[in-house]
Amino acid sequence: MDKRTITALLMMLVLYLLFDHFVWKPQRDNARQAIQSEEVVPESPISNAPDSLSAAALPTVNADSLFSSSTEAQFITLENENIIVKFNSRGAVINSIELKHFDFGPELKVDLIPEQAQILNSIVYSGGESIDLSKHNFIHEVDSAANSVTFSLQGQNDAIIQRSYRLDDQYGIHTDISVKGMGSINGVRLDLSAGIADSENNTKSKAQDYRFYLHADNDILNIKLSKLGKNPPQGSYSSFAWAAVRSKYFTIAIKENEPPLSKSFSAALNENTGNPGFAIDSFTQDAKASWQQSFVLYAGPADANILNTYGRQMEEIAERGAKWLRWLTNIFAWFLSWLHGYIKNYGVVLIILALVLKVLLHPLTHKSMQASLKMQKIQPQMQYLQKKYKDDPKTLQSEMSKLYKEAGANPLSGCLPLLLQMPIFISLYNVLRYSLDMRNAGFVLWLKDLSEPDPYLILPIIMGIFMVIQSLMMKPPKGNPDEMDDKQKAAQSSQKMMTWMMPIMMFFIFRNMPAGLVLYWTVFNIFSVIQQYYLLKHNRNKE
Q1: With 239 labelled, which of 35, 119, 466, 496 sits at a CA distance of 20 to 30 A?
Q2: CA-CA distance, 54 to 49, in Å (whole number)?
Q3: Is 494 helix (H, G, I), strand (E, B) or coil?
Q4: Cα–Cα distance between 398 and 240 in angstroms, integer?
Q5: In what order do the strands lie in the sheet with 187-192?
Q6: What is this structure's pTM?
């Protein structure tokens, strides 16, 4: 096997490893290791929560002795330009968060709360016991001017629990909870175990796309769905910022305002939906006469720009790939969005992107192709040297280096364009896979969603065909078998095998890629074939 074949195999390995690390496998971060740190680093700031923090472990107060309220629940609706939020007076919880600008099938809007579920139910810890607020009906008062609602639960001895919600002009729901007149208060638990609802008809990639996030102790925990099911995390921390669950395109996140009082968390899969959910707990042994906590609930698209306006690195919830490449990801996202403002078909936009990148990379790829052609021309001299110095590897290496230098050839030249494409690939993958602009973006006929794999594998097959054509065009002329030794015959056989094996391997890699990415790469290869054709024609005319 000659050096070019070995180099090609190494490049294929590099390609596979890069995709495996940056595309197929979820991002690994230091916070993920914190979940398992009990066995490795016992003093980790995120450790298992004490059993006393579990709501089930505490005796439940018969709140009827403290609070009396009507039994009939009422439903209240607030909305702004982006969301419609429906509240239930029983428990002062949220039953529905409907996104006005995102559809879920014909005549249906995306609702981030699972059907028949609710979020932000609270448990109040008082005197070593717990009060489940979901069992009690609150009175409410709506302030239309402030786009807010306040729920109150009045009890004996001036005991009162209040919960207020206010919508901002984006996707934020500002919420406060206050408790007073109950003697000693040890904290509050907020329950978001219902998690996030499915928003897409195709949920085959749920295990990869759905995540749980926790930003605490200046670290961000990021756990994908499959890991969450195997080892549900729970832990305590000294400083809490926010926690979130994310589907492919949307997120529900809760950020605590200053000063943060939350002390622990627990996350798990919702038994009804199989999606991630969590609860945060502010239990403390130092009881207080009154209690007040303030949060912002974000319920909307996992868009880095919007999330960034809420501060505390909430933009990290959005999937944007490796940090070292985000600048390139942002450029592609901006360019595609800008171009889509003029051309409404995203397939056409991706074709134009492939053409633009081909033009920008033309000087480099042209030089690479020229070097490859020079390698073809010196094949006879290379075979002669290999035969002449087959028993003297050191001299062969020296003579081959001289030949490359005199001919201006480089055996690694064909690998350079592939290496340049890797950052583009990784960046485009995240843009095409998770960008809201690509959600349900179709192209033609069978391609209804370019963010999902081609259902009929037509694009990967076309891509493979053009890769074979490109390999055949650059294939060096066959040598005379009678004049070749065994080593040269093996090298020629390996080159022939690589002509077919590389496209086949790339087919299996790309069949699970977003169709938009395969479309881009296929069109890019077609332009490369055209470029090679005219380069070969130009060289023949010169000769």
Answers
A1: 119
A2: 8
A3: helix
A4: 63
A5: 129-132, 121-126, 187-192, 276-281, 264-269, 234-236
A6: 0.78
Confidence of residue 226 (pLDDT cuts 50, 70, 90): confident
Q: What is the Cα–Cα distance from 407 to 374, expressed in whole angstroms?
A: 7
| Other Cβ atoms within 10 Å of 131 Cβ, number | 24
Residue of 236, 247, 233 lying closest to 195 (CA atoms) = 247
**CB-CB contact of 418 with 19 (8 Å):** no
The owner of tokens 């006393």 is 52
Q: Evaluate if residue 343 carries a pLDDT over 80.
A: yes
Q: How many CB atoms lie under 10 A from the CB of residue 444? A: 10
CA angle (284 as vertex; 280, 288 as ends), nearest 5: 115
Which own/partner pairs from 333-339 qualify as long-range (CB within 8 Å, at least 24 positions apart)?
333/431, 333/435, 333/437, 336/431, 336/435, 336/437, 337/437
CA 390, CA 398: separation in Å to the nearest integer? 13
Place of tokens 């280096």: 401
Q: Which among 92, 143, 154 is positioned nearest to 119, based on CA atoms?
A: 92
pLDDT of residue 418: 66
Could you tell me the end-to-end alpha-carbon distance of the chain, in angstroms, rounded to an integer?
31
- Residue 288, H or E segment: strand 288-301
Select from 321, 291, 193, 199 the least CA-distant residue to 248: 199
Tokens of 391: 């028993």
Q: What's the CA gap between 151 and 467, in Å, rounded?
A: 64
Residue 300 CA: distances (Å) to CA of 252, 274, 535? 7, 20, 51
Instruction: Please choose, from the candidates 261, 265, 256, 254, the residue with its C-alpha nearest in 3D space to the C-alpha of residue 290.
Output: 261
SS3 303: coil
Over the stretch 267-324, which tens digit does the pLDDT of each residue have?
Answer: 999 999 999 999 999 998 888 889 999 999 999 999 999 999 999 999 999 988 878 8
Token look-up 């006469």 returns: 289
Contacts of 217 (CB under 8 A, 6+ apart): 45, 46, 237, 238, 239
The answer, yes or no, to whether the previous bond of 423 is cis (omega within 30 of 0) is: no
Query: DSSP code of 82?
Result: S
Strand 276-281 versus strand 187-192 pairing type: antiparallel
Model confidence band, residue 246 (pLDDT cutoffs 50, 70, 90): very high
Residues written for the chain: 543
Close Cβ partners of 158 (under 8 Å, ≥ 6 residues apart): 180, 181
CB 212 within 8 Å of CB 228: yes
Q: 68 phi and psi, to 5 degrees?
A: -125, 135
Q: Look up residue 404 and give its two tokens.
A: 């490359």
Mean pLDDT of 91-101: 96
Interatomic CA distance for residues 8 and 14, integer angstroms: 10
